[in-house]
Amino acid sequence: MQEEGLSTGQCFETFLQVLAKKRIFTFVSHPNIDYGNEDILRVIESYQGHPGFHFYHNLARNDFVNLLRHASFLIGNSSCGILEAAFLKLAVVNVGNRQRGSSLQARTSSC
Question: Is the pTM of the predicted complex or chain greater than 0.70?
Fold first, then answer.
């Protein structure tokens, strides 16, 4: 989804705007220390208190897996979109190049 000229933060905010417009309640993990995380953190800060989003830093492993088990889909660039999501047959939108070269499941789309 990252088109030329769009920053990581702009792409992330576009996802949040669409999810909010569709009224899809969303759990959002804070980013790792990857390139562009400052932009993502600024967007998260601007959405704090939004009723459609729950932002978290870390979850216990069991809580995280249970959250995935009940999710409709996953958007991100984490290996959990390749490993855990594949095991749970969860649809994934893989964003960016971070997982390039990884074996993607049939229910994974990359952008």
Answer: yes
